[in-house]
Amino acid sequence: MINVIWHKNSLILKGHANSNSKGKDLVCCAASAIVQTATTWFNENDIEINKNNKIPSFEIKLSKINKQNQKYLELIYQQLACLAKHNKKYILCKK
Predict the structure, then answer these.
(1) Percent of the chain having pLDDT more than 90?
(2) What distance in Å separates the CA atoms of residue 90 and residue 86, rounded to the nearest whole number?
(3) Rounded to an integer, what distance in angstroms lies between the CA atom of residue 27 and that of residue 33?
(4) Rounded to the nearest 5°, which phi and psi values hold at 90?
(5) Which residue in 9, 49, 62, 70 has its CB near the most CB atoms, within 10 A?
(6) Taking the complete model, does pTM exceed 0.85, yes or no?
(7) What is the rounded distance in angstroms from the CA atom of residue 5 to the CA atom of residue 93?
C-alpha cells in the first residue's frame, strides 16, 4: 500500500500499491505520474526532493514557503486523495 502523509510544508509517499505485478501496477504508475509531473510546477530552489528506493519513499519538502508553493503541495495531495478514493485497497492519504 502507498501511504501519503501530508505535513504543512511537505508531502511524503511510502510504499508500493501492489495492485498488480511489477510493470503493470497502474495505481503506482498514477501516483508516480501525479508527483513527478507536479514537481515541475515549482521553481528549482523552492523544493527539496528526497528519495529512498529501498523503503521505497519519496518526499517533497518546501524550501521556500509561500502561498503559491503551499497551494501546489495541497493540489498534489488532493490529486493523490482522489486516486485513493477510487483505490482504497492500494493507497491511503493522511493529513
Answers:
(1) 88
(2) 9
(3) 10
(4) -120, -15
(5) 62
(6) yes
(7) 6
